[in-house]
Amino acid sequence: MELTKKQVIELSKTLDADDITNYNSDEVNRLYNMERGFRTVAYSVGTYGINSCLCKGNTSDNMFIVTARNTNLFIIM
Asked: Which DSSP helix (H) or strand (E) runs through 65?
């Protein structure tokens, strides 16, 4: 579901999501493989494209958020 960035961040706080914005990309890739991918719950779009994403792991149902337009955002998408 498309929301504003502020709404995505608020939603992640209510769902107790882990912020993986500043994780090393190797750690995020390892997490991606461990979860066998992610399902996108919510995202926000700005002038230059997607700028935050809230995802749910496929195996553990843990929630993860990336709040910056960086490599980790495109790994989890």
From this structure: strand 63-66
Residue 30 has a CB neighbour count (10 Å cut-off) of: 12
Strand order of the sheet with strand 38-46? 2-3, 38-46, 49-57, 63-66, 18-19
Closest CA to 54 of 45, 67, 36: 67
Side chain identity at 72, as an amino acid letter?
N
> How does pLDDT run across 37-72, given as a tens digit for each residue?
999 999 999 999 999 999 999 999 899 999 999 999
64 φ, ψ (degrees, to nearest 5): -135, 145
Using DSSP's 3-state secondary structure scheme, residue 2 falls into strand
Contact 75, 29 (CB under 8 A): yes
Segments in the chain forming alpha helices (H) = 5-14, 25-35, 71-76
